[in-house]
Predict the 3D structure of the following.
Amino acid sequence: MRISQYHKEILLINHNIQCFQQIIASTTDPDQRMFYQNLLDSEIRRLNYWQWYYQLANKGYGDEVIPNQREFTLEELAQYDGSGGGLAYVAVNGIVYDVSLESTWGGGTHFSLYSGKDLTAQFDGCHSGKVEILRNLPIVGVLIG
Amino acid sequence: MGSKITINPITRISGFLEIQVEIERNKIIDAKSSGMLFRGFEKMLRGRLPLDATYFTERICGICSTAHSMASTLALEDILEIHPNENDKMIRDFMHGCEFLQNHLRHFYQYTLPDFVRGPKVKPLYIVTYDDYRLPRELNMKLAGHYLESFEYSRLAHEMLAVLGGKAPHNHGIFVGGVTVNLDAAKWIKIKSILAAIEEFVTSRMIPDVNLIAEYYPDYFNNGVGYKNLMSYGLFDSYGEKDLFYLAPQVVINGKWQGFNPEKITENIHRAWYEAWKEEQRPTEPTVEENVYKEEAYSWVKAPRYEGYPMEVGPLARMWLSGNYRRGISTMDRTIARVLEVKKIIEIMEGLVERVQLEPTGQGRYEFPTQARGRGLIDTTRGALGHWLATEKQEIRNYEIITPTAWNLSPEDSRGLKGVIEKALIGTTIADLKKPVEIGRIVRSFDPCVSCATHVLSDRYSPLQIRIV
Amino acid sequence: MKRVSSHCPVLDSKKNTARKLIHFAIEEIKSTLENKMNLIWLEATGCSGNIISLLNAENPDVIFLLQEMVTLKYNNSLMAAEGEVAFQQFIDTLETEFILVVEGAVATKDEGLYNVLARYQGKLITAMEAVKMAGEKAKYVLAVGTCASFGGPSAAKPNPSQSLSVPQFLNRKVIRVPGCPSHPDWAIGTIANLIAFGEPELDAQNRPIIFYGITIHDRCPRRSYFDKGIFATKLGDPECMFKLGCRGPVTRTDCPVRQWNGYVNWPIEDNTPCIGCAGERFPDGMEPFVRY
């Protein structure tokens, strides 16, 4: 994930936050207020996540940020494809996550995708790049090469 | 000049069928049977994993899904060169038997009976097309009552299957290596009690019912004959015990008995909606593409032939070849044989349930070789079913399926030989041209399942076919 | 003396009028009793597994459905009539108030010729046409089974028949009752809701929440094994089959509590993983079904 993309994302989120705050301030309809409050909360969560992620990207993966700074090449990653009941790892945006016990990854597969691969493109396509979804997954390292 | 009659839909079958006949002086001189559904399962299976084939091919048909899971499992076990242990095999055969009971009960009562008996006063069961109902009022009412009862017993047959297979239709439980259920006493006594209930219904009601129908409609012993060439891939034939053995694979052509050789099976697409560089192909050779606008073609069903002959398969073929029924070959004989087969299969299932042990399954973990071929041939509810499978790089490269209905419902082939149902219809006398009740009755005696009969295989990527033996 | 003609018009009309009135009265009474809604169960591009599953219904069974709940006007598997007389019943029902149940997807390749349901007045009627005709006029449309709801096996890659799901094909609201096959309770329960209480509460995919509200995983009897990380290594084992590829976590049905065929068993209790047959992406997105 490039730094410029990150900045664009942060700009967009801040813009959204401003918009929603304005609407909330100007509306008298309680339902409308609730609706936009929900959207605002969602955007603030996104902002928090992106700021955390930026720290990660900037700090160069220091010890205190990632518990396990193991490096994976694509070949090494391919060994963790969940077959034989073994470990299942997936790389998204350069970070390698452990999906071995993630309930939607039964048998190491997820909606016809196999683990042991870099699935950044598929993630962006299916989950619209919503990286908050990955927040609770254990991180086992980073993808290099 | 003859007159044409078209019946579409032929109701009370599985799937979509059109029958067109040409009649001259009240006799059928030509018949065309058209399967009217195509989904392309063989194309879909390419590239999938072999282990997924069992559940996938089940979805070819709702009323005979167990049959496909059996044939597919046998084909996979052929590739892996494994056999289930004796206990698992008996449980698996028992599950297969459950489907026979369900199908034959439903076919006789829900599909066939409304042709001969006025239905109970429940729409749409009693809005009829014809009025050739010959049973006197009390007998008619009695049989209509049995019709309503049959819903429970056919449902119980599926319940028996679900006890061992998780759910029905599209059961689990039958898989490479054997079965998955760990049989315990509660399951065992449940299936035993259900089997006893069905047996009582069949003996006290189903068999007398079919004999009654035969009494009032004796003219149906003289039509629907076909070629009289019968075939079976064998059923319950791995047992030495007499009470468990049904019949071995065999064929009778023109009155002469022969052993069965799968290499003699070919499929002809002359009058089917497909194009290929060769009109007659082996099931191990891929290569057709659909073309619904092909001239002169009239069906999605391909024309399987054995040594070039159209063969009849099904309960009558089995009961005849095994010596259990030799009265004759006709519409009524077919129906009677189907009912008598229920009794035979119940007896076999009773034998299996007495011998089966309360052991856990013999399942293991299976890995597929990189390149292999296998086939699963077995007789099921409607007759002979075959799955031919070739794998490459541990994925399915070809998957060819020839169903019993393809044998019975095939169109004409390139040698001018009509399919079995077509031949059975030709020569029939139609009493009243405005009410051709004979056609539906003859067709239904074959128990067609058109969802099964239609598929295609294509190997677009290699015009050259490489045969790996 | 001239005999009085026995065909005195006044006398005759007295007798006949009374008889006619009684006849009409009886018909009126019958027709108001028979105020069940009409139902068409249309089998389209599929395996017809859902009608077989329906026949497995118990309390209520199919007889109850047909006698007490709805008037089934058209169904390829059960109706006594055949040919044009049969299809005429379909056509006639379109002018009444009816529920349309479609099982199987809608084949659209080559103008739908991959699935023909009838020949009516010389013309072939494709499943496409029949679904459109009835779908436009029905009071409610139910897509029963995964093929009708989402495309399912009929639309599996490469989808040779170019099958679409019923909601994709029709331009109106369709209630989805997926499952491969659909459990008879789900179909009959939805119909019961419609005839007695109106439309049931539906989720974002238009599935009735009473059946499809919670994932299998969240009600699985083997969940404690999952939570403790104790997994089966092959079929036939009694532990959680997550590592074998179980799709319970991504499938919403009540199979664990309702179970099948007289409520006797279900796939996971049979020691096989769930293959997600009621899911939107079945079968392509649920494979591999079993992975060692």
Observations:
- Residues 70-143 of chain A form a domain with the Flavocytochrome B2; Chain A, domain 1 fold (CATH 3.10.120.10).
- Chain A touches chain C at residues 82-85, 101, 103-104, 106-109, 111-112 (CB under 8 Å).
- Residues 92 and 120 of chain A are 4 Å apart (CA to CA).
